[in-house]
Design a protein that fits this description.
Length: about 325
């Protein structure tokens, strides 16, 4: 059998009132328009029993908004993006806004499809962690609807942006570790043209300089931000050295996941390798291997993205269109 949604007309017929009266009660204006309390109660009770929900399309036509925003991320299983998405969804829920989420798998073509689908669904605004190398498409699209970039800055964009300061805490962490490992310190990064790789490599390089260590070009290895890339880079490094490396910094949590998987499979978790990474995970406190990390505040990132996008949707002028948030060190090597 074909199902049918319960309408205001249905509620009115069941309650024995006019459609106009049912509409007033269900919109919360019954008391204001002097609808009898008994009638209001009867309409509301029937609506509750019938699981009636007002049409979002009608609300959208009335407000000239869809009351939805779109979030586009490279990878849903990435811990940082997952936590960010959860925090953003809670903010949306509290504000009565629906969050639509799409994943690009670090594929520019898939990103374009995801964004176009969001626009076709008439979202009020977009929050995007882009894998594109230029913001040209988003500068054009921002003339149609508000856009906030986060986590990544394609082509040094001047579009509204929220991201974590990658350089300062990386300098601090690397300079500490390099004091103990002056002769060997490896950097495993993602795609070299993406801003997170560039910024974290800049912090890594400056951290070595601060410790009085000269960066050797062979210490820098780049792949992608997927865990499989971290696994492959670390496996190739161990094969090249004929032993585990002495110290490694991974540019993201996903890369470290691949490294840990290789170490587990090859019984290296008890080795004295000094592991460090950008991004933290609560499980790192439970591992036998110690890992120094740089922890982003995903809750704060989500709040700033949500606030900035809402200001743009409401036609307000934000005090700051580009926001760089601090990170904290989680030091487990003592």
């Amino acid at each position: 059998m074909k199902t049918r949604r319960v309408t205001i007309k249905d509620i009115a017929e069941m309650a024995g009132v006019s459609k106009a009266t049912a509409s007033l009660v269900l919109s919360g204006r019954g008391k204001e328009m002097r609808v009898a309390q008994e009638t209001r109660q009867r309409v509301l009770t029937i609506a509750r029993e019938q699981h009636y929900q007002p049409s979002i399309h009608a609300r959208s036509l009335r407000d000239n908004r869809s009351h939805t925003i779109g979030l586009v991320v490279p990878e849903m299983t990435n811990y940082g993006f997952a936590v960010f998405s959860h925090e953003l969804e809670m903010l949306c829920r509290e504000a009565g806004v629906q969050l639509l989420i799409a994943c690009t798998d670090e594929n520019p073509a898939q990103e374009s499809i995801a964004v176009n689908n969001m626009v076709a669904r008439q979202v009020d605004g977009l929050i995007i962690a882009s894998c594109l190398h230029s913001d040209a498409d988003y500068r054009k699209l921002s003339q149609q609807l508000p856009i906030v970039l986060f986590d990544r800055c394609p082509g040094k964009s001047d579009l509204p942006l929220v991201m974590t300061d990658s350089i300062t805490p990386t300098v601090d962490l690397i300079s500490r570790i390099a004091q103990k490992h002056r002769d060997e310190f490896w950097f495993l990064g993602g795609q070299p043209r993406l801003s997170p790789t560039q910024d974290r490599l800049a912090g890594f390089t400056q951290g070595l300089i601060k410790a009085g260590v000269e960066l050797r070009p062979e210490w820098v290895i780049n792949g992608s931000f997927h865990p499989s890339s971290g696994y492959e880079m670390f496996a190739a490094l161990c094969a090249r050295l004929g032993r585990p490396p002495k110290a490694v910094f991974t540019a993201a949590c996903g890369l470290l996941e691949g490294v840990l998987r290789y170490m587990s499979q090859h019984h290296l978790l008890a080795s004295d390798i000094h592991l460090a990474s950008f991004d933290d995970h609560y499980l790192y406190d439970s591992l036998s291997v110690r890992i120094d990390t740089i922890q982003q505040d995903n809750k704060l990132l989500a709040w700033h993205c949500f606030e900035l996008l809402n200001q743009l949707i409401n036609g307000e002028t934000p005090q700051s269109r580009q926001r760089c948030l601090p990170a904290t060190l989680q030091l487990r090597f003592r």
